[in-house]
């Protein structure tokens, strides 16, 4: 138990807290800019639309409308645990730990801690966002609204009950970023330059948004490409530019994409361990 706790120490330092704080400040600037440039800033909008606060909260997740929020969170992913792990390996600071316990077990422990830390940080950021929107922009209420078909912004993303839908959205989005973070962690076997790796999350995230749209025309089943789009994990039901592939519900699409990304992450992690064992 004591040795397991000690594995956290290299990843918990003041610079990490400062980085998360700076990213959170930038997120708030992004929220303010998005609010000022949207219909939600119109006078008395919340009076005419009682669900305005909740609608605005979900509106921020639309990658096509507000890409900066997505970019900032993707920037954070490799810098929570993965970058420190890569830096420790290149500086041989983890050598004593690797020799004291099984290397594969050590890597797996850090892999799990990266997922856990990402989940907690993303959940806290989203919760604080909701509070800031509620107190400083538009009050968030949970009303049982009946939205017309193809309404531009719905608040019943995962369930008809808006409170349950909101809770599920926070949890599943944090879990979605955690799955992506696990994949970013494993890809440090390819991106060995630690300074480039710091920003790799942004590049990787943009590619995961664009590549499915670019390759769909080359697949026998074009809709299958969108099962790999990162939007399904981190912006559940927010992109209304097209219908869900194969007529899937938002929740079904999320779980299928989460399964595909998880399998890819596990495969990359196994390759990552084998290459480290061979090359070290």
TrEMBL record:
Regions crossing the membrane: 17-36, 56-77, 115-137, 164-187, 199-219, 251-273
Domain of life assignment: Bacteria
Keyword check for Transmembrane: yes
Keywords associated with the record: Membrane, Transmembrane, Transmembrane helix
Protein name, entry field: ABC-2 family transporter
Taxonomic path: Bacteria, Bacillati, Bacillota, Erysipelotrichia, Erysipelotrichales
């Amino acid at each position: 138990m004591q040795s397991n706790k000690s594995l956290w120490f290299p990843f918990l330092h003041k610079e990490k807290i400062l980085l998360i704080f700076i990213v959170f400040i930038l997120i708030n600037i992004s929220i303010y800019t998005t609010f000022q440039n949207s219909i939600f800033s119109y006078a008395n909008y919340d009076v005419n639309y009682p669900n305005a606060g909740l609608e605005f909260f979900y509106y921020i997740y639309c990658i096509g409308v507000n890409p900066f929020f997505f970019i900032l969170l993707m920037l954070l992913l490799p810098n929570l645990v993965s970058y420190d792990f890569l830096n420790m390996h290149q500086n041989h600071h983890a050598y004593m730990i690797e020799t004291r316990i099984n290397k594969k077990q050590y890597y797996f422990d850090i892999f799990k801690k990266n997922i856990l830390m990402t989940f907690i940080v993303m959940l806290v950021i989203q919760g604080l966002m909701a509070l800031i929107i509620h107190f400083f922009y538009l009050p968030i209420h949970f009303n049982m609204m009946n939205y017309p078909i193809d309404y531009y912004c719905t608040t019943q993303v995962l369930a008809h009950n808006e409170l349950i839908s909101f809770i599920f959205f926070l949890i599943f989005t944090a879990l979605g970023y955690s799955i992506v973070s696990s994949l970013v962690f494993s890809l440090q076997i390819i991106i060995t330059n630690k300074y480039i790796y710091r920003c790799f999350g942004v590049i990787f995230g943009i590619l995961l948004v664009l590549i499915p749209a670019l390759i769909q025309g080359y697949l026998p089943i074009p809709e299958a490409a969108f099962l790999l789009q990162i939007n399904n994990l981190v912006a559940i039901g927010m992109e209304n530019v097209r219908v869900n592939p194969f007529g899937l519900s938002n929740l079904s699409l999320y779980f299928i994409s989460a399964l595909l990304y998880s399998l890819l992450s596990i495969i990359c992690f196994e390759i990552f361990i084998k290459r480290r064992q061979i090359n070290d």
